[in-house]
Amino acid sequence: MTGSSSYEDLVKAILECRKCPLYKFRNKPVPGEGPLDSKIMIIGEAPGRYEDISGRPFVGPAGKLLDHLLNLAGLERKEVYITNVVKCRPPKNRDPRPEEIEKCLSYLLRQIKIIKPKMIIALGRISANTLYDLVGRRWRGMKIEHGVSTEGKIEELNIVLIPTYHPAAALYRPEVKKILEEDFRTVIKDYARKVKSDTVSKKKSLLDFFS
User: Fold this and answer.
1) Whole-model pTM?
2) The domain that contains 97 carries what CATH number?
3) Cα 189 to Cα 25, 73, 142, distances in angstroms
């Protein structure tokens, strides 16, 4: 089975999912989007109102801010794969509950296994806490951990994990927006450059081998 057909099966499973009660409240599940060979993965918490309507991640005001943040890091949306820990919108935009995260986690793990990212940016404390659990690290809170890179393994893949605040938290809080912009402008940009450089170097070495 190819990666693309595995991914198609995964998307179908998400669209038809009824593992937890969230399916009763959703308009559209939000599997995620982006290139399946991306080395950078962005993982948020759960879809919001605009995402629930469109079936796409980060398309509302928080999505516009994310586009701006990616630009600060020298990235474009088309270069990264974007998804959430939970694939359906919780009612009234409440936080996903632990049991909902648990039911949805297998989808996220399958996405990571298919995409094989080198770097994961965790947006928001729920995403960060979930991913820290996966790499076997204790989450100490966003004030301490934001913008700090940590290395670990998820699905047997070596990954650099960088948590930061969720863009939605910055929409009406200038102090949070300033921190987010700094995280993307510095540590996230540095690691993104390394990941992209390593990918290009490997492609060049293969071309040299066959030339």
Assistant:
1) 0.92
2) 3.40.470.10
3) 37, 4, 19
